Amino acid sequence: MASHLPRLPACQLCAQKKTKCDNSRPKCSFCARSGIECVIVNPADNTRLSRELIDELEKREKLLASKIRALETESIITCDVPESFSPDGSQTLKSVNASPPAARGGAGLGFVARLFDDADWRKSHASLLRTLSNAPDAAAEASIAPCPLPSGPETQALFEKYLSWSHIQSPFLLRREVWELHQRLFMNATRPEDAAHHDLFRAFLICAIGSILPYSNGLHRQHPEGYYHAALQYLGPQCLTRGLDSAQDLLLVCRFGIYYYIGTSIWDVIRLCGRLCIELGLHLKTDDEVDLLQAQRKRRVFWQFYMIDRYSSTTLDRPFLIDDRDIEIGFPVDADDEELERASSSIRTLDQFCSTHNPGSRSETTIVFVSFRLRQISSRIHTEFSRLKREQRESSPTHLLVGHVHVVLNKLLQELEIWRRNAPTVAEPSCLYEMQEWYDLLHARERLYLVRRAIDLAPKMDGTPSRNILTILLKTALETIEQYYSLCKFRRFMTHTRSYFHMLFTAGLSVMYCISVSQNLTPADLRASSESLLHCQETLVNMSGHLSDARAYVAVFEALHHDISRKLRPQAESGQAESITRELHMDEASLASLPDMYRDTFLQATAGRRQQTTNLVNNPGLSSECLDFDGSLVNPSHVDDAAARYAMGDQLGDGGTNEYPSNGNGDLINWGFLTHDSLWNMESALGQFAYGDPITSGFWDGFEF
């Protein structure tokens, strides 16, 4: 048994005699033979600790750990779900859903479940919770009718929009494929409606994706879903028999699913695409490449599948279709199609081309490498923390877990920093994917995912993790909110998606959790958290105007936000007057150094805060209900009853005062990852609430309304 226990330092007697001290419990062999107490001395503070006590604590820890494992085994959720096979053939929907992400620890936001633990909150918002638990799927039926294919010039404009926007981030189609398709439809003698069904299917899908930004900007009349539903009319029984073309078609469906509901789970669609890729051997390295452009096309398709598979699987805490160790093929080469065509006459393989090619200016694959590399880091995050979770359950002592978590966390944070530093710089961005602000958001979002995994798995004292990891979580969540809030001001580049909503909702709840459990928050931390939560709620309300099925979740967010603001007001009041007075004294001291032309502006800017300080000093009994915890005076009548508003069917976001775009035009490669039934990767109470999974609809029964 001793060989499986942590190695202990030499005891005091063995150290004095300079003899070898073994790892036996409750005494080392020498002390046992001598019949004396075996004591270890901490050299840092000379405290004495009996090895017998250590042995007793280790036995108690082992006993408690076994009880926890037994309780976890008893609490596994089992559901009577009809057997339905998933595309990989090895798992059924029943086997996957029997252990949903919300029921598994270490995968998302289990720690935030304590936000719902407040009995007063549940009682005051009982009607809201009941409404949510019975909320129907808002996207169950398609409401947009199929439309005809546009004219030749209009289709050409949509194809060009596709190539100048979506293609930059997802170049799994060759440019020549897109224009050859357009030529077959409009340049030949036949009418477009008489073209092959596969051509029409792909053309409608490209139009659907290409029309997303123009439609959002009011520059295109046809709703993108009209093109998508028209494409489905040409989805024949041969849709999976075309090899690489079929894989590309499935990727087009997934790409459209980022923005609009596609009628099924993108996670299932991308796994079907992955099976095609594996059957075609796209993950394997071959030396018989002749056409460099076709070899490049295969690599683009495979790595596009990889990117979506990694994002959707990590979001849902579900297994990857293919392990990284089984992937032999490298990235596509950083070159334009024309370069590869010219080199095909003299070079046989892409690897040979890479060894002689010196990339100069940016090619059409440069930007997508950023996402490929980021998804590799996502894969390592998922793998590392899954390993830690498995070791924790099997044999690893709990008291050693915190060190392992911090080692993995620091290593992966460093990898993300290196990734961000190596992101390309585009002097004049033409779309969102070329903007530095977009890379900043991806960086913040991935760090938030990483810290969420770490904080879920790290040991906690009374439900609270270490101060260090809480600080990282708060900083990362605040940065994620502010990065997205800032990007929303780029109207012609941004558009809201459900994955963005998931990201922002998660970040906001993370901030609430941090300020709920942290004991050492400074007034600056509270102000920053308050401002970001206001930005988060404002953005979520705005998003719900475009994602109608998100309104229920916005109502819950508002209720939680109001509740936590009420709790924190006394904390903010205690240090607010002192903080404001100190700032104003600093302002007055530096006032003399300001040029005359700026002095009036300064005085106007600080007038409100001076009056606020006067009110606090002269009216110590000022009601905390009139003071928001960011230090601003508010009217208590302005606080909305989110439950009542939702129950009355209020159109959240209508008539608001948002100064940033209400629609937006562009995506941040956050894949619209699954059906509305499995939209959210949160855990425990929060996971079941936001996931909207009908197989767990009885979860709310556990609450005492």
Automatic annotation (TrEMBL):
Keywords: DNA-binding, Metal-binding, Nucleus, Transcription, Transcription regulation, Zinc. Residues 10-40 form the Zn(2)-C6 fungal-type domain. PROSITE patterns: ZN2_CY6_FUNGAL_1 (PS00463), ZN2_CY6_FUNGAL_2 (PS50048). Gene3D superfamilies: Zn(2)-C6 fungal-type DNA-binding domain. It is found in: Nucleus. This is Fungal-specific transcription factor domain-containing protein. Pfam families: Fungal_trans, Zn_clus. It comes from Dactylonectria macrodidyma. InterPro entries: XnlR_reg_dom, Yeast_MetPath_Reg, Zn2-C6_fun-type_DNA-bd_sf, Zn2Cys6_DnaBD. One of its GO terms (cellular component) is nucleus. The keyword Metal-binding applies. It comes from the Eukaryota. One of its GO terms (biological process) is positive regulation of transcription by RNA polymerase II. One of its GO terms (molecular function) is DNA-binding transcription factor activity, RNA polymerase II-specific.
